[in-house]
Amino acid sequence: MPMDFSTYIIQLNDAILLENGPNLAYLLRPTSPHGKDLVKEFRNPTRLTMGRYEGCMQSPWDDIAIQYVLVCTHVARKRYVEAFKEESQLVTFFLRFFTENRGWTLPALFSILRDLRDLAFDADFHAKYNGQKSECMEESARIIAKAFGNCMTDRTSPPDQSRKWGVYYVVGLVLKSYFRVNRISLSKNVLRALEANNDIPPLSAYPRSHQVTHRYYLGMLSFLNEDFVKSEQELTLAFYNCHLEAHSNQERILAYLIPLRILKGHLPSEELMRRFPVLNEIFAPFIAAIRVGDVAAYDRALDKWEPRLLELNLWLSLEKARELCLRGLFRRVWVATGKGNRIPISMFHTALTISGIKVPEEEAECLLANMIYKGFMRGYISNEKQMVVLASTNTFPRLVDRPSPLAQI
Q1: Nearest to 258 by CA among 227, 223, 310, 293
Q2: H/E stretch holding 387
Q3: Which terminal Cβ of the chain has fewer Cβ within 10 Å, N or C?
Q4: Distance CA 61, CA 54 (A)
Q5: Which distant-in-sequence residues (6+ apart) come within 8 Å of 406 by Cβ?
Q6: What is the pTM of this model?
Q7: pLDDT digits over 256-275, tens only?
Q8: Which residues pair with 389 in a beta bridge?
């Protein structure tokens, strides 16, 4: 049955009186069925024509109801920039109510902030498509960051009804917005404020979905700052706590966790890669090349996937993992010589040449020195005799046994 504005006002008022957060969230969602009913009722509403409804509910809910009709109308007409502006105003009105209430309002807050972010994305996309400039996503990040502050400053609600239970969800929305507009440096301000507040419950007490999102972005920030040890820890926790049916989220986490594990010498199993064909297409050539020490094949894979890897900020990590391929090639030379302790540098140089890596012998010596320095092989180089003197035991240590492998990258 279609819903008119009077019925909408009654249901909105009931949800507030009963402190029914999920129902309130549903009533404020522009894509809900009643939104289309209101669009048909008012045709072309404006703030001026809707002014007669001011005072129909306790402030600020009369303004919120009016804003909701305006948002639904712009969404229906595909006027996304205007829809974003009206939704921004709706969020501002809602935050006035939110700061005076408890955690029951969190479902509604989450819903309108998601809608704000989605409308900002649509507005920027359509503006760019039409050759116009739009900064709606940046504006949405600022508004969501304000909501984060409102969650953090709840000092009067009982612990189990506190607005602080929304902190990590809102932080996830803020970080997602910053990543979308490539303003990642601003993330530090939010995380610093989060760390400085000792009154919020531990992360482990929050819903698992909040934990996974937060750890994913912590891992991403650490990855981009080249703190690979912390990045691996956070992404691993995010992956193992991710819902089994959230395939796209698992894929997003693994896109960065797999290169980190490769750098440590942990190559992913074929079973895992089969579950994620998109990642398998990218990483399979690198994994295969590392297994057999085929440096030329590794370099071809780097060239082929360079645009995509640069887009994902993964090119540098996989370029560093090339050392694992070199280690595999040099080990094959050692095996071919009967696992001897003294091997001429020229033999390693020849192996590089046969593999399609044409470098001077001096550079081959430099590569060997680097392998020894980083713990990929044990021994030393005799410059006088142009010989590599290898250790008699554990000549090529297992990659995973190297001390702090990620710290040496």
Answers
A1: 223
A2: strand 387-390
A3: N
A4: 9
A5: 228, 229, 232, 260, 263, 264
A6: 0.89
A7: 999 999 998 899 999 999 99
A8: 342, 380
